[in-house]
Design brief:
Layout: E1 5-9, H1 38-49, E2 57-63, H2 67-73, H3 79-82, E3 85-90, H4 95-111, E4 116-121, E5 125-127, H5 132-143, E6 148-153, E7 164-171, H6 178-181, E8 191-198, H7 203-212, E9 215-225, H8 226-236, H9 238-241, E10 255-258, E11 261-264, H10 270-276, H11 282-287, E12 293-297, E13 301-303, H12 308-311, E14 321-324, E15 330-333, E16 337-340, E17 345-350, E18 357-362, H13 369-378
Parallel strand pairs: 1-2, 1-4, 2-3, 3-11, 6-12, 14-16, 15-17
Antiparallel strand pairs: 4-9, 5-13, 6-9, 7-8, 7-9, 8-12, 10-11, 17-18
Helix pairs in contact: 4-8
């Protein structure tokens, strides 16, 4: 055990990998390159660090529309793992602050005591996986000291699509509890006090951040104590936590189980709470305002996979591709595709899910998919998304 519980955020509609990723099948349910989805690998990380000998939980927060996808992906796990998992379907998407507040309140109510909680995203890749528990142990040690811990990623290039963390002085690890010492991690990860959070910068600003060497990419993963973070919500973001005040700890009749997955399907007043809660990210609502934030400089490699150019490095071409004179092309299609005399193309074809669509982009230009998605919305063709 490293933390008591883990909140896995599995919401989002997914448009950067359109048309393979769409509202019916967002990015987190795509193959992450090893035959398992991004979501499944996130669950593997969560099960590796929670209290599986006791009452530890993996709390999955996802949209109601993706309940069937969640159940399907959970099919690779056994009973011993699934007994620690609960799915809370969100009535509507209201960003990460609402998801984290909801999951933390659930953990706090059900356990009746302070919990050490890790928050994970469900659409990133972390390698090598064996470094993740050691880094989590460092974050958990500070969470036990009433700190908000965030994982920072050493930037490898001046990315303008990520938020950044400005690190201040290097800290010494606090006195660690016995369960952290038992992890036997290879050396102490570097831990810094956080000076500031910076939103997605311009190219020039990103280059400046890289040159200063004390800026890190914001991974969106956090660790904290439940009582501490609920106190932060009440003081810094009452518009997020107040709508949940009407909720009470759910009883057994609130749940149903399908294929071993326990689903909190009828949590009284959850719908009205989500209608009223402010749509805001956890970073804006809490992290940027918290005076007790530290950053663990991740020793692992972290990949956001935010474009088709990045994704092509993870997965193989579709199985049925015919080529004559084509060079350096990538195809992801659910129907046969033939290429003749083409170079440096990414071709994506989707004919299923009632949303047939084709993307053809030159390699190196796939970030422009967001412009295409914007045009689709402007024309009112949201059924394609």
């Amino acid at each position: 055990m490293i933390v008591n519980d883990c909140i896995v955020m599995a919401g989002g509609s997914g448009t950067r990998l359109w048309p393979a990723s769409n509202s019916a099948r967002p990015k987190q349910f795509l193959d992450s390159g090893n035959g398992r989805s991004f979501f499944q690998t996130s669950l593997e990380r969560a099960f590796a660090v929670i209290d599986r000998e006791g009452d530890g939980r993996v709390i999955v927060i996802a949209g109601k529309a993706h309940t069937d996808r969640i159940i399907q992906d959970c099919g690779i796990f056994g009973k011993e793992e699934l007994k620690h998992l609960v799915l809370i379907p969100e009535p509507e998407a209201k960003n990460t602050a609402a998801a984290i507040a909801c999951g933390t309140l659930y953990a706090d109510w059900v356990s009746g005591g302070d919990r050490t909680i890790l928050v994970l995203t469900s659409d990133h890749i972390i390698r090598p996986t064996e470094l993740f528990p050691a880094n989590t142990a460092a974050a958990a040690a500070y969470a036990l000291q009433d700190k908000l811990a965030v994982f920072g990623i050493t930037p490898s290039f001046p990315e303008t699509g990520y938020g950044y963390i400005e690190a201040a002085e290097l800290l010494s690890n606090p006195e660690e509890p016995e369960f952290v010492k038992k992890q036997g991690r290879p050396g102490d990860p570097r831990v810094f006090r956080v000076a500031s959070f910076r939103e997605k910068p311009s190219q020039r600003t990103a280059e400046e951040f890289i040159s200063r060497r004390n800026f890190f990419w914001n991974s969106g993963m956090f660790a904290f104590g439940s009582r501490f973070i609920l106190h932060e919500f009440r003081g810094k973001a009452p518009e997020v936590i107040s709508p949940f005040n009407a909720l009470t700890a759910p009883g057994e009749t609130s749940f149903r189980t399908e294929k071993g997955v326990r689903i909190l399907e009828n949590w009284r007043d959850l719908d009205s709470a989500y209608r009223a809660v402010k749509n805001i990210s956890f970073d804006y609502a809490i992290a940027e305002k918290c005076a007790s934030t530290i950053m663990v400089a991740a020793a692992f490699d972290w990949f956001d996979v935010g474009s088709w150019d990045a994704y092509t490095g993870l997965v193989k071409d579709s199985s049925e591709v015919y080529s004559s004179g084509a060079k350096n092309c990538f195809v992801d299609s659910d129907i046969p595709v033939a290429l003749c005399g083409t170079e440096d193309l990414i071709v994506v074809v989707r004919t299923r899910d009632g949303k047939p669509a084709v993307l053809i982009t030159k390699k190196g230009e796939s970030q422009k998919v967001r412009d295409i998605v914007g045009q689709i919305r402007e024309r009112g063709r949201t059924e394609l998304l």
